[in-house]
Amino acid sequence: MSDASRNVHFNLHAPTLLRLESVTFYCLSTFAMKIADRTFIISGGASGLGLATAKDLHSAGAYVSLLDLNADSGSQIVSELGARAKFFETDVSDTESIKAAVDGTIAWVTQTGKEIGGVIAGAGVGLPGLIVDKKNEPISISSIDFVLNINLRGTLDLIRQAVPHMTTNKPAGPDGERGVIIMIASSAAFDGQMGQVAYAASKGAVAALTLPLARDLSRYGIRAVTIAPAMFDSAMTKMMGAKVKESLYKAMEFPKRAGQPDEFARVVRDSVENVMLNGTVLRLDGAMRMPARL
Ligand SMILES: NC(=O)c1ccc[n+]([C@@H]2O[C@H](COP(=O)([O-])OP(=O)(O)OC[C@H]3O[C@@H](n4cnc5c(N)ncnc54)[C@H](O)[C@@H]3O)[C@@H](O)[C@H]2O)c1
Fold it and tell me: Above 70 in pLDDT, residue 7?
């Protein structure tokens, strides 16, 4: 700190300091992107990380449009959340299915007047398979397609179809922002394990497309952020055997536990509100680096 600025700092009278603090507070809240009274499209919103995100954004006053294959869970969540939630049975690997869900969401937005504030592309699957198995059989192309079609193609297709409805938003706040795209990668994008070629390829691609997506959308004031979680409690990780979980815990640094969906949702909320988060991949892993094998 220079002498001049130190003097300025220490010569302030209390009322001036208070005034300065209130100016600072005013500035921070002015720059935050607004969640309330905006609609967020959340794929995979009927379970796990997507559901926690939907509940958190909803509790902050958002309207949530949940896109998922699981219609039973989707309808139940909408009846719990009430009028600010809608469910669309959607298969993100099917372009027409996404189109129907986006069209349905836009029809809802037309009624409510709560424009699209963001997309959270959370639908995802894992299907382990070695590139070549013990019988020297290569991994089936159908299992590679299955994972890539949902995790990568489905993510990009949803974004592609939703974005034209965001570029026409009224610019908001001092930055003139029009919304945010949030994607879910995984630790496997960086340290994929044996048997994860397809999953790691899908998640690595999501991580890689984050910066060019932010660059494409910057002229509209739309941001792109990817979150890369390690092991979080969800339906996906419930299927893991005790032995697999135990060896994952051993690879953890601190804390030695699975992440909780609400801890993930808090990072989504900050990614929505904090306009400086853009074009980046946020690891959410307690310093865990996955070993080659479990
Ligand atoms: N839980 C973890 O440990 C973890 C770690 C890293 C990354 N992830 C990623 O987080 C995302 C959310 O996973 P989760 O852990 O909450 O799992 P989850 O199984 O609880 O939720 C995934 C949701 O996606 C839906 N879905 C699957 N295929 C779909 C399709 N074709 N169309 C529409 N919806 C579909 C499922 O019905 C489910 O509701 C996934 O992309 C996953 O790869 C999870």
Answer: no
| 255 CA to centre of ligand 1 in angstroms | 23
Delineate the domains of the chain, giving CATH numbers in brackets.
34-284 (3.40.50.720)
How many Cβ atoms from other residues are within 10 Å of residue 126's Cβ?
19
Return the bridge partners of 223, or none: 180
> 104 and 86 in contact (C-beta within 8 Å)?
yes
Q: Is 68:51 a contact under the CB 8 Å cutoff?
A: no
| pLDDT band at residue 18 under the 50/70/90 scheme | very low
Cβ(125) – ligand 1 distance below 6 Å: yes
CA angle 212, 216, 218 (to 5 degrees): 110
Residue 133, burial from CB neighbour count under 10 angstroms (0-12, 13-18, 19+): exposed
Q: What is the DSSP string of 249-288?
A: HHH--SS-SPBPHHHHHHHHHHHHH-TT--SEEEEESTT-
What is the reported pLDDT for 249? Answer: 87
Please give the Cα distance from 163 to 147 (Å, whole number): 23
Ligand 1 atom 2: the closest Cα is on which residue?
232
Amino acid at 132: V
Q: Is 60 helix (H, G, I), strand (E, B) or coil?
A: coil
CA distance 118 to 115: 9
Residue 61 or 13, more confident: 61
To the query of whether residue 199 is one of the catalytic residues in this protein, the response is yes
